[in-house]
């Protein structure tokens, strides 16, 4: 994967417009920490990498907002936008850690700050990421560089400022959850991760709202209507042996919306259904050791049980997912 590739998680290119369009349709100050020997240079090297890429594509000048306890930012977006983004990342990280720790998962933030690249507008975002302008949404997470890259949807006078602000929030929460899952012990960046799991986890976290009224793991009202629409049309869910092995389902136009909705549903079920979280923990531990997709079905059967039975349970769960 090239450093400036568009978003790839688990080795697959994602359709960004389809994801946010579906979610939006459904939805109708932290202190810094003291520098430690060695960590500052690693963080600075990351910032230098951002500056180098920006110079290469003719983007700049860049500025950095004040770092927080676990995040640093750089970009050409106003410092107010950068500061707010880091505040939201910190609050998400607190909620995320508590939620997963309460479920028995061993998760911890890294001992270095994570980097958020905050760009002023879609044009700069397209130049920096290599995306075509107009084909992007509001952010990506790059596993190779470990950077979260966002831009301000409100730039240029958005037709609907409230919708643009909502797009900013959902995209940031989605991508920041990706970054957390790959930096806290749930997933590994160089491992084989079924796309339905990495995306399902991100959608599990994207529901968090700045006011705290919606938290990590709450119902995702962006994807529930997709599941309901599929039921009305008589369309069943994808068999899990297919969803776990065919990453293309989440990026092909004909299947991506239902596949993404089911990915969220699967993670929600494994986190909420009685007896399932311990199985999910064991499953994630197993796939952290994998570097190719040869054992995807074997790992799922070993730790999650009979997949045909799980298919039936998931179809029932879609009718009434747990609220808490």
Task: Give structural notes.
This protein is α/β, with parallel strands linked by helices and 324 residues long. The protein has 2 domains: 8-181, Glutaredoxin (3-Layer(aba) Sandwich); 195-317, no CATH class. The protein is 48% helix and 7% strand. The chain is built from 12 helices and 6 strands. It has helices at 16-26, 39-56, 79-102, 122-129, 161-181, 195-205, 224-232, 240-243, 256-272, 276-287, 296-304, 307-317; strands at 8-9, 12-13, 71-74, 114-119, 139-142, 147-151. Strands 3-4-6-5 form a 4-stranded mixed beta sheet, with helices on both faces. A two-stranded antiparallel ribbon has the order 1-2. Helix 7 (224-232) packs across helix 9 (256-272) and helix 9 (256-272) packs across helix 10. It is globular and about 55 Å long. The relative contact order is 0.13. Residues 1-14 and 28-33 have low confidence and may be disordered.
């Amino acid at each position: 994967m090239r450093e400036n590739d568009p978003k790839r998680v688990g080795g697959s290119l994602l359709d960004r417009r389809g994801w946010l369009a579906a979610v939006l349709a459904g939805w109708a100050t932290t202190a810094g920490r003291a520098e430690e020997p060695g960590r500052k240079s690693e963080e600075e090297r990351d910032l230098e990498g951002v500056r180098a890429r920006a110079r290469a594509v003719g983007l700049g000048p860049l500025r950095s907002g004040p770092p927080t306890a676990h995040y640093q930012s750089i970009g050409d977006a106003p410092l107010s936008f950068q500061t707010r983004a880091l505040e939201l990342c910190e609050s998400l990280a607190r909620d995320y850690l508590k939620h997963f720790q309460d479920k028995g998962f061993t998760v911890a933030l890294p001992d270095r700050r994570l980097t958020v690249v905050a760009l002023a507008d879609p044009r700069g975002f397209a130049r920096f990421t290599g995306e075509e302008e107009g084909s992007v949404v509001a952010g990506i997470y790059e596993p190779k560089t470990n950077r979260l890259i966002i831009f301000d949807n409100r730039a240029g006078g958005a037709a609907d400022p409230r919708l643009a602000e909502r797009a900013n929030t959902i995209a940031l929460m989605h991508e920041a959850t990706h970054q957390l899952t790959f930096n806290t012990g749930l997933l590994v960046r160089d491992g084989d991760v079924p796309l339905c799991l990495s995306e399902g986890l991100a959608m599990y976290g994207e529901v968090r709202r700045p006011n705290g009224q919606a938290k990590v793991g709450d119902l995702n009202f962006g994807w529930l209507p997709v599941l309901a629409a599929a039921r009305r049309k008589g369309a069943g869910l994808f068999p899990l042996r297919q969803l776990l092995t065919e990453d293309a389902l989440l990026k092909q136009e004909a299947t991506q919306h239902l596949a993404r909705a089911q990915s969220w549903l699967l993670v929600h079920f494994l986190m909420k259904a009685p007896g399932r979280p311990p199985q999910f923990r064991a499953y994630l531990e197993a796939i952290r050791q994998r570097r190719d997709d040869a054992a995807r079905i074997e790992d799922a059967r070993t730790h999650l049980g009979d997949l045909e039975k799980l298919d039936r349970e998931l179809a029932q769960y879609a009718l009434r997912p747990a609220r808490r």
